[in-house]
Design a protein that fits this description.
The complex is a heterotrimer of chains A (265), B (278) and C (254).
Chain A lengths: L1 H26 L5 H5 L2 E2 L4 E2 L2 H32 L4 H15 L2 H15 L6 H25 L3 H9 L4 H30 L2 H7 L16 H11 L3 H30 L2
Antiparallel strand pairs in A: 1-2
Helix pairs in contact in A: 1-11, 3-6, 3-8, 4-6, 5-6, 5-9, 6-8, 6-9, 7-8, 8-11, 10-11
Chain B lengths: L3 H37 L11 E2 L4 E2 L2 H32 L2 H16 L2 H19 L7 H25 L3 H9 L4 H12 L1 H17 L2 H6 L17 H8 L5 H28 L2
Antiparallel strand pairs in B: 1-2
Helix pairs in contact in B: 1-11, 2-5, 2-8, 3-5, 4-5, 5-8, 6-7, 8-11, 10-11
Chain C lengths: L1 H14 L7 E5 L4 H13 L5 E6 L1 H10 L4 E4 L5 H5 L2 E15 L5 H4 L3 H9 L16 E5 L4 H9 L8 E3 L2 H10 L3 E6 H4 L5 E2 L15 E9 L4 H10 L2 H9 L3 E2 L1
Parallel strand pairs in C: 1-2, 1-3, 5-6, 5-7
Antiparallel strand pairs in C: 3-9, 4-7, 4-8, 4-9, 4-10
Helix pairs in contact in C: 2-11
The chains are: A mainly alpha (265), B mainly alpha (278), C alpha/beta (254).
Chain lengths: 265, 278, 254
């Protein structure tokens, strides 16, 4: 059995490393400051991808701005305030169910609600809010874990000093749980960067530089999708893929390392 | 210190606010389900038909369901042995230092966005299939391989947890009786970890069914049942992504209805995962 | 705490400055490259910002009807139903629908008759040898349902077999045909000219020659007579500078 498993493991590792090698090999040559910081020319065949990077940043920032407060709030409720009982079990099941919903369905929902019914059209705002919904389970899960991990003594100490539950939370528990919560947000960031289907249906594909959240915008993952399927420039597609993968891997690695260290100090 | 009444009032307000947050988060999935079903209601009756041809008003999703199932089944066929094998490797064979290296690698594999897998599949896999095996390259096989790579980390991680949960005594007992590592794995470990492994498979199944981008980029999007693994195919998810932007009226309703169907399928699979895991 | 709330409020206000600034054009992806260049040119000529969105002709028309876009980019003629809703068509160029094959495919030189093309795309011809190519299966490539190009192909040539591979952009069809010696698809002349594929003569005529059967009008659609920014943009399109840009994209200006 051993040799078979060794071969298998080597193949699988080779797969990931090969993937990265391919992206670096074919994409690194196209990377330049010009690519990152100038405007696209001829629909992306030449020039840079500055609007894409800006759109991506705006979209992700908006999504986190919406998801983190609600997510942390929900996590606080579940960890600190929720009484045992059917209601709380329902809330948890539903949040878990949310994490299983395919991304295309979020896209359908966001398209129907934000783009069409609310009349926003394809916009970064529609994309952000849709993405925020997708990120909620991740944020809630990690935030709840972080809050629960704060030792009881700290809460009891605060109570002994006369603090209300909320005051104890705000001044003591949240401060302690902040690193864990932040890590959750970073994990969510990684997920947000890689999301394509839902963003495609809600934020659109316009290559222009967005000036407000109501403008459409093309995120990096959507840009890669378009470059890949339309064959405008293979080199640039590889470059976009390389930037995207590097960003996502860096973010995830940071978050996972932080989680490891924080879970087993 | 501020007045007690004020602080208590703030406390109640905060309690309400946080409850609202929790309720909103939980209502989200219900809202999505209701929305999607409501928008798709007018066309639900058309779904069981055999042909998806919006230009002629036919919205049968049978071929699309076949497509989703074919690609998912192929992916599981590839990813389950590989994932369980990987888990066995990590728990039984690999020295701990290697495990420390490989687990983050698998985690990294899980974090790569699906559009990147689709891109590499389009650049490398599709031409390879076309040149070596025939057909246009866009195929069930291409979709299955790309999906398999994507669900492999999930299956490996859950399977590893399941295998680690098997008590050491089982292994030691079997070894004392003279069993080889393979015999131990096959007759003791895998059966003992049965429910966890089943969970791994079902979770992989759920992920594969819901995947859109990568599959869309390498399967050719042909809305007809595939006759072989080299035939192009269209999944439920790819169908929605491809046509949603341009659909109106009944066509749009049919896409939402197929979305509702997809949601039902994925929810059923996830529910199965929970039951199987017990 | 109060700072955070204040900051959130400010950010929200900044974000929600009403609808996006600029004229929105939505519709045909075949028109997207030329629209983007015209938008660039319009801006340089002193005009306002123009936002170009794809989505397909039908989506663009719907967007104009819904008031979400100021102009719809259409790569097919409006249907009677659409015209009855008050939509006005302004033809800005003619697109030459180009059938493309891989450079290694002999059909690229020999050409096809319209009848052969129709039979091929209906799925009735399953081997290239039947129409003068090297023996082997035919891999049809088409656009997605709702695409103006697909509509145009349907009306100019005929229905497409459900077994044809579907790509959701002209670029995607070009890429597929570029990589597969057995593939055949249709794109606009501008996209065909990007290289890697060969334009198939139909009934003896090359695309661009008078008498080539597969031509379609490209238009910008407004709800009622054009006003404001949309009218200014339409005026710009008639200028010599814009006509030059249109020609550079492989289209024939109106």
């Amino acid at each position: 059995m051993r040799p078979v498993l060794w071969v298998l493991a080597t193949l699988i590792c080779g797969l990931l490393l090969g993937l990265l090698g391919l992206l670096v090999g074919k994409g690194a040559g196209e990377l330049s400051l010009e690519l990152l910081f100038t405007m696209p020319v001829e629909a992306g065949r030449a020039g840079g991808m500055l609007p894409v990077l800006v759109s991506t940043l705006l979209l992700v920032a908006g999504a986190l701005a919406a998801a983190v407060p609600v997510g942390v709030g929900a996590a606080l409720y579940l960890a600190e305030y929720a009484p045992d009982g059917p209601l709380v079990r329902w809330i948890r099941s539903l949040i878990e169910a949310l994490s299983g919903v395919p991304s295309i369905l979020f896209g359908l929902f966001g398209f129907s609600l934000f783009v069409i019914r609310l009349g926003w059209g394809w916009s970064l705002a529609a994309g952000s809010l849709t993405l925020a919904l997708m990120l909620l389970p991740t944020v809630i899960r990690t935030a709840e874990e972080a809050v629960r991990a704060v030792p009881r003594e700290l809460r009891e100490g605060a109570a002994a000093l006369g603090a209300t539950r909320w005051e104890a939370l705000r001044r003591v528990v949240l401060r302690q749980a902040a690193p864990g919560i932040l890590t959750g947000a970073v994990l969510a960031l990684g997920r947000a960067l890689g999301e394509t289907a839902a963003v495609l249906l809600t934020a659109g594909t316009d290559l222009g530089m967005p000036t407000s959240l109501m403008d459409p915008g093309r995120t990096l993952s959507v840009h890669l999708y378009i470059l890949a399927t339309e064959g405008l420039s293979e080199g640039r597609a590889y470059a976009a893929a390389l930037i995207l993968v590097t960003a996502v891997l860096a973010v995830n690695l940071t978050a996972n390392l932080a989680l490891e260290r924080w879970r087993r100090p | 210190m501020r007045g007690l009444t004020g602080r208590l009032r703030r406390e109640a307000a905060v309690h309400a606010l946080l409850l609202t947050a929790a309720l909103s988060a939980s209502l989200a999935v219900l809202l999505i389900a209701i929305f999607v079903t409501a928008e798709g209601w007018p066309a639900l009756a058309a779904l069981p038909g055999a042909e998806w041809n919006p230009e002629e008003g036919r919205f049968g999703v049978r071929a699309l369901v076949w497509g989703s199932l074919a690609v998912t089944a192929g992916a599981l066929l590839l990813a389950v042995p590989a994932g369980v094998g990987m888990a066995l490797f990590l728990t039984e064979v690999a020295p701990p230092s290697l495990g420390l290296l490989m687990r983050p690698l698998l985690q990294a594999l899980a974090g790569v966005p699906s559009v990147v897998y689709g891109f590499v599949g389009l650049q490398v896999l599709v031409p390879a299939i076309r040149e070596r095996l025939g057909g246009p390259g866009f195929s069930v096989l291409a979709g299955a391989v790309v999906l398999a790579v994507m669900i492999l980390p999930t299956i490996a991680a859950v399977a590893e947890d399941a295998l680690r949960a098997v008590p050491a005594a089982y292994r030691e007992g079997a070894a004392a009786l003279g069993a080889t590592p393979w015999q131990i794995a096959r007759r003791i470990l895998l059966p003992a970890a049965r429910s966890g492994l089943a969970t791994a498979v079902v979770l992989g199944l759920g992920r594969a069914l819901g995947e859109t981008m990568a599959v869309m980029m390498v399967t050719g999007n042909v809305a007809a049942p595939p006759r072989s693994v080299l035939d192009p195919v269209r999944t439920l998810t790819g169908n929605i992504a491809m046509e949603m932007g341009y659909a109106a009226g009944r066509h749009r309703a049919a896409l939402f209805a197929s979305g509702a169907l997809l949601l039902a399928m994925v929810m059923a699979v996830n529910g199965l995962a929970r039951r199987v895991g017990r | 705490m109060r700072m955070v709330a204040l900051l959130a409020l400010v950010l929200t206000l900044i974000g929600c400055t009403g609808t996006a600034s600029g004229l929105r054009i939505a519709g045909s992806t075949s028109l997207q490259p030329v629209m983007e260049r015209l938008a660039e040119g319009y801006r340089k000529a002193g005009g306002g910002r123009v936002i170009v969105q794809g989505g397909g002709t039908t989506a663009g028309v719907q967007a104009v009807l819904a008031g979400v876009a100021g102009l719809g980019a259409a790569s097919r003629r409006l249907t009677a139903a659409e015209s009855e809703q008050g939509l006005v068509e302004h033809i800005i160029a003619w697109d030459v629908l180009t059938v493309v094959v891989h450079p290694d495919n002999p059909v690229g030189r020999r050409g096809l008759t319209l009848a052969q093309l129709q039979a091929l795309f209906r799925g009735e011809v399953t081997d290239w040898a039947t129409v003068g190519g090297a023996p082997g299966p035919v891999h049809l490539v088409t656009r997605e349902a709702g695409s103006g190009s697909r509509e145009a192909f349907r009306s100019l040539v005929g229905p497409v077999s459900p077994r044809a591979i579907v790509q959701n952009s002209a670029g995607g069809i070009r890429m597929t045909v570029m990589g597969d010696p057995r593939a055949i698809g249709y794109v606009s002349l501008g996209v065909a000219r990007m290289g890697g594929v060969v334009a198939v003569p139909i009934d003896g005529k090359r695309p661009g020659e008078p008498g080539y059967p597969l031509v379609r009008p490209l238009s910008l659609v407004t709800l009622g007579p054009p006003r404001g920014e949309a009218a200014a943009f339409l005026r710009y399109i008639r200028s010599p500078e814009a006509r030059r840009l249109i020609m550079e994209e492989g289209l024939v200006p109106e």
